[in-house]
Amino acid sequence: MAEVFEIDLSAPDERLAGTVCTIGVFDGVHRGHMLIIDDALRDARARGVRCIVMTFDRDPDEMFAGGGFKKLMSNEQRICALAGTGADAVAVLPFGRTLAGSSPDGFLDAVFAGALPAALHVGSDFRFGRGATGTVADLAGWGEEQGVAVHAHDLLRIGGERVSSTRIRGLLAFGEVAQAAELLGHPYACAGIVEHGREAGREMGIRTANLTVPEELRALGDGVYAAYAVVGGERYRAAVSVGIPPTYDDVATANMEAHILSFDGDLYGEPISLEFAAHLRPMQRFERTADLIAAIESDIAWVKGNL
What we know:
By secondary structure, this protein is an alpha/beta fold. The chain contains ten helices and 14 strands. A hairpin with a 2-residue loop joins strand 7 (about 155-160) and strand 8 (about 160). The mean pLDDT is about 90.
């Protein structure tokens, strides 16, 4: 894993000087992001210098988007994923009112003044500074003045459309986990700590691991999914209900419930990760317990036969 360090904007950070950098939020660390990071890494190796991925301690949209904003990863997960991309280091910028309110020139001065990289790689849609008014053309002009090579990369396109975090979030909202995984380059996953639930599954003989995922991380639409549960480093097949089950909406609190196949143990208080593979059906309200059990058994049978 790469070194991770925080940038103190009150003084130049010499760790950036002479390196090859790429900068962005990188929510999801998808295939489009990796195309830019890999090019930056090749550039760094050709120059014989370090490759540094620069990102923010929080997604700027958290400050500006208001309610209903969804993310593909928590800030911690995103930074950890970037540390595993092959870059030499991840530099984390503190995103607060000061940086958010900086002009485009002020943003570049705050981040790079006194510690200029040799090269900077960004996507062709990169924006920076107050109100996202700084453009790639502005960045290229700054780079020419400062002696920094600026590389603006065309965005990766799959299926005729550009790969973006927004596109992936849209797919997930409709349960299109397979298409989302194609754009991500890896399965969409959620993680959490197993908590005590209403124990209706235990009473039906179908135990579940219950998670409460924060709303901003619930990019996946409600429904029942086939997934893999990662427990203690081991992967198990699972049938997962996402959302509050309508049958129990008056008592349920967990918004993800996973029945993990071939696992028999106590998971309360333990971290698990769920990697989603297929959408099985929408959420349904069942008036009879027997109908609910039959539906769950059908979901489990699909998982057994197809994963």
